[in-house]
Amino acid sequence: MRRQTVVMGGFLWLLGTLCWALDDPLQQPITFDQPAQTIRQLLRTLSEQTGVKLFAPNPIGREIVLVSVRQMPLKELMAHLATVTDGEWVQRPDGCYTLTRTPRVVQQRRQQDNERILEALRRTLQSKEVRELIAPLTRQQVRQRLNELKELMRTVESENPSNLFETNYPSRFYELQRSMTVGYRLTWRLVQQLGLNRLLEIPVGERRVFSNVKGAYLLPLGFSPRPLLEQYLQEIQMVHQVWNSPTEGIPAEHVREFHQRYGLVDGSWLAPMYPTSPLTQVYLIVQRLNPDAFTCSTEVTTSELGVLSIPQQTDIALFALSADEEAAVQGGSERVEWSERSRQFLETFRQLQSSCEPVALPAILDPAQTEPLSLIPTEVVRACAHKRGKSLVALLPDTVMGVATLALNGETALAQFEAHLRHDTEFIETEHVLLLKPRFSSYQWDQRTDRAALSQLLRQILQRGHMQLSDYLILSRMVRDRFRFDSLYASYLELCVPMDELWRLWDGDFQFIQSLTPQQIAALQAGRSLALKDLAPAQRQQLIRDLYSGQSRVDSPRPPADTDTIIIEADTEDDMPFIGFDLIHILYPDGLPAQTTIRLADAQEVPGIFAQCRAGVWGSFLSLRSMAACPPGKELETVQIRTNNAPLACMPGWHRPFIVEVKIGKNHAVYLPVNDLMGDLRFGDDRLIKEAKPIRSVDDLPEAFRKKLAEYRKEQQEMEELFKRYVPDPKP
Fold first, then answer.
1. CA distance 11 to 38
2. How many CB atoms lie within 10 A of CB 440?
3. Theoretical Cys-Cys bridge with 80: which of 351, 360, 393, 572, CB 3.0 to 4.6 Å?
4. Confidence band (pLDDT; 50, 70, 90) for 678?
C-alpha cells in the first residue's frame, strides 16, 4: 500500500510538472548532449524539440557552443546561453525568441572586461618584484647583487655542467642581472607614471609611442620625465662604478671568458659607459599583444638630433593574470578518453604529417566538413564538467583548438588540458552548471576562422606541394588573433606546413602588402619602384599604419661594434644614424616624407633545398649559400639542427623572397613584413624543380646546384682567409 502511495505521488508530481510546462513552454525540461556546433544549429534543434521558436542572427548565430544538460528547464538553458554569448533574449511579436547582442550589452561588457584587466594589471604593479624595481637602486643593493653574481659564476665554473640550461642557474643569472639593469627599471617607472588606463586605449595587435616630444604619431606622456631621467643617470653611473671597481667589480677579461664559455653574463650591456650629454627626450613604446598582455620598452635621446641607445635591456612584459589563473589547477589522475571520431582525427593527422607522399584532404581533417571544435575540444571540455559532476554550457573560442596539439603530442591528463583552457576561457561555476566563455570576451566577438576558406587553402597547398606568396596573403587575411600560436588555423596548417613556415605569419604586418594590386605586385617583382603618389589613399593610409602602429623597425647605419654608448649628432634627419630599437617615430614623428619609395629588397630566386616534407608539401628552405658555410660533407647538419632530426630526404628547389623595402630619406629603410628571422626563412614564393627527386646527399644535387655550391664554398673560403689576415686571433 505504501509503495502504491509513493508511485501515485510521483505520478501526480510528474503530471503537475507536465501541466505546468504546457502552461509555460519555457519550463520544459531539456536533455541535450551533442558535440560542439553553431548556436544556429542548436536553436534549430531546440525549436523542433520544444515547439518554441528560437533564433540567433549572425554574428552570434555562427558562434560555436557545447551543451550537455539533463532535465534543465528551457528558460534556464536560454539564460545560460545568454551568459556565455554576452547576449539578450528579445521576444518578437510573432512569439519567436531572438538571441542578440544589444548596444547596451556591448558597452557594458567591454567596460567590465576593461575593469578586470585594470584590476589584474594593478596587482602586477603592486607585486613585490615590481615594487622593488620601481624603487631607487642603492649602491648597497648593487654590491650585494654583484657579490651574488660572482659567487654564482664560481659555482658554475667549479661544477662545469655539461648542459647549463638543464639546471636552475640560467634563471638565477637572469634575475640577478635584471635587478641591476637600469634601463629595465626606467621602463617600469615610466609605465607606472603613465597610468594603466592609457594602455587600454591601444587596439589589440598594435603599438603606440608615448613621448614628451610633439608629433603627429606620438602620444603625450602627460608628465615630465626629467626626474626619472636624472634618476636613471645616477643609477647607471653607480652601477658602472661598482662593476668596474678594482676591489668590488668583476674583471672585464673574466666576464668575457665566462660569457664566451657559458653565454650568461654580458658586461657590455650590464655596465655600460654612462652618457655625458643631457638626456631630455623619452619614447615609451607599448605593444598590445592581447587584451591583457603588453610589452614595453624605452628610447632616450638628447635635445639635438642625436640619438642615445640605452645599452641595456629595457623590455618589460606586463600581463594581467586572472585570479583563477593564478590558482594552480588541481592535479589528479583523471585522463581523457577519446571517442572513435577523435581517435580517427589523431591517427589520420599523425599519418599525414609524417608522410612525404601527396595526399588528398580526408573528411575528418577537412574543417569545412568536420567542425574542428566538435572533436578533441568537445571531449576535453565535457571531461572538465564531468569531473565536477555538473551540466555544461560553453561558448568555445577557436583558440581552444590548442588542446588538439597537446593531444597530438600524446597528452591525455585532464589537468594539463584544463590549465591550457584557462589561458583562453573563463570558468564560471554554479551549484549545478559549469559555464565556459572566452576570456575577456568583448575582445573576441566574431573572431572565427572561416572554415570553408581554410579548407580551400589546405587543398591548394596539398595539391601544389609547396607554399606560394598567394597562400601567405590568403592566410594572413584569415589571421585576426595572430599573436595566439594555438589558434585553429595554425593547428590545421601544421598538418602540411613546417612550423618555421608558420613563423613567417608572426614576423610582421601584411596589411599593406595585401592592399597592393596584382599590377603593383608584378611591377615590384619586375624591379620597378613605387612612389607614395603611385599609391591609392587607402594604400598610403595602410602603409603608415603598418609602419607606425605595427612592428616595423628602421634599418640604418650602426655604430662601431665595440662601442657601448654613443651620442651622434647630425645636421639633418636624412643624415642621422639611428641606434637601438630603430623607432621610426623618432626620425619621422609627423609622417613619411614625400620622397618615400617602395620596392622589393631582393627579387632574385635563391637556389637551395627544402628540408622538410609533410603530407607531400615541401618547406623549411635552406639556401646553397648557407650550406656552403658548413664544412664539406656536413652541409646537411644545418638541416638536422633546423628539423630536430636527421631528414630522410631533401628536395632541391628555389625560393624567391618578397620583402618590401620602404626607402625613407637617404639613409633609412623599413622592411615589410618585419624579418626577425635570420637566414633563409623569408616571406615569398617557393618553387620545386620539375621532375626533381628527393636527395639524401649533396652529391645527389642537380649539376647546376653542385656548381653553384662550389662557387659559394670558394667565396666562403676567401672571406675566411681575409678575416684571418686582418683580425687577430682571440686569446685562448
1. 37
2. 22
3. 393
4. low
DSSP letter string over 127-190?
SHHHHHHHSPPPHHHHHHHHHHHHHHHHHHHHH--S-GGGSSHHHHHHHHHHHT-HHHHHHHHH
- Residue 303 CA, distance from chain mean position: 36
- Other C-beta atoms closer than 10 Å to the C-beta of 43 total 23
pLDDT of residue 56: 96
Indicate the DSSP class of residue 730.
Answer: P
Cell numbers placing 447 = 573572431
Cβ(441)–Cβ(423) below 8 Å = no
> Has residue 494 got a pLDDT over 50?
yes
For 511-587, list the strands marked E by DSSP: 530-531, 554-555
At 177 the pLDDT is 84
- pLDDT-derived band at 640 (thresholds 50, 70, 90) equals low
Which DSSP state fits 399? G
Continuous segment of H or E residues that includes residue 100: strand 97-100
Is residue 621 classed as helix, strand or coil in its secondary structure?
Answer: strand
Please tell me the total number of residues recorded for the chain in this structure. Answer: 732
Record the cell numbers describing residue 125, joined without a space. Answer: 604593479
Report d(CA 529, CA 478) in Å as an integer: 28
Kindly report the CA angle at 576 between 574 and 578, in degrees rounded to 5? 120
- Enter the DSSP assignment of 668: E
Q: How far apart are CA 609 and CA 622, in angstroms?
A: 5
DSSP 355: -
pLDDT tier, 279 (very low <50, low <70, confident <90, very high otherwise): confident
d(CA 592, CA 722): 41
Q: What three-state secondary structure class fits 732? A: coil
pLDDT tens digits, one per residue of 403-422? 999 999 999 999 999 998 99
- Backbone dihedral angles phi then psi of residue 302, each to the nearest 5 degrees: -85, 175
Please report the pLDDT score of residue 245 as a whole number: 87
> Pseudo-torsion of CA 330, 334, 340, 342, nearest 10°?
20
